[in-house]
Amino acid sequence: MRKLFSLLSIAGALCVQNTAAQSDTDQQSANNRLQAAVTLMDNGQVDSSLILLEEGRKLFPDNIDFPYEMAYAKYLTKDYNAAADLLKKLQKHKDVSDRVYQLLGNCYDYLGKPKKAIDSYDDGLERFPGSGPLHLERGIMEMKAKQYGRALAYFEAGINGEPTFTSNYYWAAKIFCSQSEEEVWGMIYGEIFINLERGSKRTEEISKLLYYTYKSEIQFPNDTSVSVSFHKDNTINIGWDPKSGPEDLAKQLMSALNRSFPGVYEQSLMLSVVGEKIINLQTLDSIRTRFLDIYAQQGKELTVPVPIFDYQRQLRSLGYLDAYNYWALGLGSQQEFEDWRIANQDKWDKFIAWFREHGLQVTNENKFTRPR
């Protein structure tokens, strides 16, 4: 079921502010009527929903939820002009939120007015600079123009502003892994995404993307060499002094690599791959397990928080890391995943029981975004 835009959907606290002059009984009546209308809308009964919403708007004229949901109903029926008219009036409402600007921009976009859509999103961002949804919409507009660098800037700003809003991770992962030579960022964004948005079609898509990116970026040219490429280049500044010898050059090289997250990531992954000859779920489980220790050592001076690595360490301490790795990447090699699951059914069941109750926690304190 679609979540209510409200003030209801955020926690209910603002609903009380909306109707300070109403009695608790009246407020409950408004909430019940709104929920009934949204349920009808979700079930495809938009006309019946509109009747309830109109009645609610008359009974509770200060409640922004009723006209917003009316606009959403009009949007669903593709009456974008009517929806936009309702939304424009809400821009000055005391309880306006970023969703009003988002839906208004979407209406303009469907009406073939991309400039007005962008203006709506930008107006919203001026008022709600940390909005995940508005950064998402601006990023999508840039993607439509094939301006992928600009799109990424918006998606990553959205991640930074609202780190639990999943769609910005989704698009950032897709662009980095499919449209760039800087897959390292897509690997992190993608794995955070599948943990925050479990069980969706998009989760399945990104699970496959992560697996196939490992397959394409870790290569074995021959029996004695390996190539790891998750970042197109790491800018390294090294001064060569003939008096210092090659040992000093090597030290500078290692020091330069250790100063950037991509450098540490690639270096740690390269060391983790040593000894493997192919990439599949089994070897990726081994590689990812070794990676945690190597990255912890190589990246000990980095200040970039990577919540997904901390989460993997927690899983390893509980004995669930292998099950998690098969879950995270399994859709890339479904038969191999099924064979492992059947052979490890008890471990899998225990992992899933724990996993349901202990998801990845991303906060403003531990959020991950690409350093600028």
Automatic annotation (TrEMBL):
Leader peptide range in chain numbering: 1-21
Protein keywords: Signal, TPR repeat
TPR repeats: 98-131
InterPro entries the UniProt entry points to: TPR-like_helical_dom_sf, TPR_rpt
Source organism superkingdom: Bacteria
Gene3D superfamilies per UniProt: Tetratricopeptide repeat domain (1.25.40.10)
Name listed for the protein in its UniProt record: Uncharacterized protein
